[in-house]
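Page 42, continued from yesterday. The earlier attempt failed because a stray header line got pasted into the input along with the sequence. Redoing it now with the clean sequence only.
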Amino acid sequence: MVLSDEEKRKYIRRLLLSRMRILSKHGFYGILLMHMEFALDESLDTAATNGTKIIFGPAFLDSLDDRELDFIMMHEILHVVLQHCTRREKRDSEIFNIACDIVVNSTILRSNDMDLSSITLRSHGESMHLTPEGKEGFSYSAEEVYNMLSVYGSGNGDGGISSTPNLTGRKPSGAEHRESGWDDHSRWGTAGDENELNELWKKRLLDACKAIEIRDPSNECGTLPLAAERLLKELRSPKLDWRTILNDFIQEEIVDYSFMPPDRRFNESPFFLPDFNGTDITAKDILFMIDTSGSMSDKEITDAYSEVRGAIDQFNGKLMGWLGFFDAEIVEPQPFENIDEFKIINPKGGGGTSFHPIFNYIKKHMQDQLPASIIILTDGYVTDFPGEEASMGIPVLWLINNEDVTPPWGKVARL
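This time it went through. Structure tokens are written below.
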């Protein structure tokens, strides 16, 4: 069947009306849906997303009433904003798909005051929302639920789960409690550069949260879902105390001792002692380099990036320098003076690891303004480290994400 232009307009109009209803009732989801394109695909039996579009099969769209359509729109956009489309890595695809659906459906259920009808489709029944332990999925990440499912169920011949208890809240009866095929995940990971897509949706998430935060306090329609609150907290909160790390590493760079005026308590002393000015702590000209080699997973790269962003937040505008990426080559470092100028660079990489390009770049391109210090975020898995002379006397901090590697020189901290 080939759709006429009139039929296409009818379907798209219905999807836009759904978005308007969601924007009115659930502001957070509606704002995020404003970034999505909608598409029809007559070869698709149900609904799907690839991270940039929400796609419907026309016959499936015809089978849905407005409430069901709104649920599926919210379901698909949550998969995108929680980065489920790009986080499976080497996990069993079917178990991971189930884990993602449990988290998403439970989050939507909580947003609808735990009204089970909000996640029920007439043709497919109540959608799964409980973990195997019988707890609501909104309190967990997809990876945490995946680990639970892997314990309770075992893979069968086609990669599925042979026994997964109580996934929907009804009496357990095994595999029938899957999503029954209405949510097609086969298009995950088909929208191009995953790192670029993830960074784009992080920014959109932050923008949506800011928009909700300034809403009319009496308007409950904008309340953030718990999953978004948790993800936002993870993005904003680094795991490391960067003030302590940088103070220990380059104390002379960030602790301001002022000799004018001297400490008044020692006016009568023969010694001229400095006055500690604790309100003017500044770290300047710090070069951050993040490893994007093949041994670094997307999550590890994201964690490293979040740490640098978190360091800037902790210093409240008094941490300045450059951010770059490297594997066997280097992505040119970009300058920043505050969090607003902290640029998201597309971290090309995936090859082997070498630290030589970092120091070669500094020697060739940064002689006019050498870094005060170099912080390298990496797993450290290389065949050889450059000699200490490569640093040209610049202090180097290796921030290693494991306990296995210890560089032969420089200072080391663990992430």
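Notes: The CA atoms of residues 117 and 134 lie 19 Å apart.
Reminder to self: strip header lines before submitting.
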